[in-house]
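Homework help board

Subject: predicted structure for assignment chain

Our instructor gave us this sequence and asked us to write out the predicted structure in token form, then describe one feature. I got the tokens but I'm not sure how to describe them. Can anyone check?
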Amino acid sequence: MWELGPDADKPEWRTVESPFQKTIFSVVNTSEGPYAIGDGGTLLADRGGGWEIVLDDGPRTRDNQLRGLDVTDDGNRVWFAGSSGALGCYDVTTRRKYDYSGPNQMTSTWEGIAVAGPAGAEKVLVANGSGEVLPFTIDGFDEDWGPVSKPASKGSNVAALAAAPDGVGYAVDTSGNAFRTTATDGWEDIGIVNAQVKFYDIFAGRQGRVYVAAGDGRIYRYDDSYRSWTPIGVAEKSLRAFDVHGDQMVVIGHGGAIYERTGSDRWEQLTSPVDGTLFDVALGDPDIIVGKSGTILQRPRGEPRHAGESPDGDQYDDRGEYFDPDGNAPGESGSGGSTGTSGGSTGNTSSGSAGDTSSQ
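My token output:
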């Protein structure tokens, strides 16, 4: 019989050092590592040397609150939106910020944003607190603002936005309705998901695959063939956000809870290192979760979990070494020993202004 040590229950997700002590609202993975937005217009990133603050005053250097964040399909630009019409992007390859705030003199608070396409050819949807959605496209850094509309002319506020890789946009509102749009067809009602619950997050993938996270502890899946929504039970309490990576889905919920899909309809609650409020999750390399009081959780992808190397060059984690290729005992130098190999949308057009053109 195996005897487990005192660290056997160490969580797969780990807290990492954060340079920010206030709430972090949203996170995405980019070509240069994960980026996140936090309270007071802060943009944070881990570009290989640990988490750091990239910007601390929003796109227009006015400390506007940022609540919406998305990334281009190639991972080279992050777009963010927030209070007083704040809207901008940050090119992670050149490390430059661009300000598009107050498009068409719209200065109300943006509540959500969705981006499709690569950097320089983006299709973007941004929604405000009145339920209006502004579509626009980007050519290089020049914007083309589209006409503002409310999905299907209904008056409810937009709860969440998403953009599929093919450029189709999706939205759910506070009355339980769901919609989709394209650049040419406008908004189309695709049914009532559930009018009795609050929605927090939406994901749009390929081939019309859409999921919505709800306050009743369920994920709702859209079936385009039947134009219907199927509820999938995950938890007993509210689900805040989720992300999809291939066939994998991770959901965060009430009180720091983390759930992962282990089969088509099977879910497992993972051990969480925190019990505070979590706001967003991004799956990639690595997987990241962010939340209240600067919380950042991380999980490696595609390799065994480890926290460094032992003196003889072997990797180890909380439970000790798990591979010893040099043939020496742990703690002995790797030199002199035998080595092995591991098996193992039309409107006014003008260019976006470069808010801060210095490298960050």
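Reply (TA_rk): Your tokens look well-formed. For the description, you could write something like this. The two ends are 54 Å apart (CA to CA). That's the kind of observation they're looking for.
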